[in-house]
Amino acid sequence: MYMGHFAIALGARRWLRSLPLAWLLFASIEPDLHDALGSWLPALGIGEATHSFPGILYAAAAVALLTALLFRRIGLALGASLLVLSHVIVDYLTSWLPLWHGGPHAGLHLYAIPWADFMLETTTIGVGLALYARSPDLRRPARAGLVAMGMVMVGLQAVWNFSMASG
Ligand SMILES: [Zn+2]
Fold this sequence. Notes:
Blueprint: H1 3-12, H2 21-28, H3 30-40, H4 53-71, H5 74-94, E1 97-98, E2 105-106, H6 114-133, H7 140-164
Antiparallel strand pairs: 1-2
The structure holds zinc ion.
Zinc ion binds next to helix 3 and helix 5.
């Protein structure tokens, strides 16, 4: 999944607004950040295990611990770990990923059907932004900006699906 991860983080803010938005975004794309870190510093990489069940459970536990230490609330730690878990769960819809390191691969691989992936991610963007918009602490100008943000997200998703899509 591509833009959908960010939409999930934005939607989760409705319940986790004591956490900085940057932290929610970090938790929702942690497995991809670990992939990027691994290609930059191979010693810290774990290859495709970032998107396997054991890998994601370790990552969710690590993010939960870090969140508990930094923000001192168990509920927030659980919420952040659920965001990490959400990453791989939705990636199994769009990709073809190992169940465990060296294990069999599974997934719907919707990236191979760009229109289907675009519909799924656009729906996720709509739901995520609708949830975000219902955050009680949001001021009116922030709500007004959401439509523009949604259009940018759908636009980036379209570029991803229809001119860059790989596998
Ligand atoms: Zn991913």
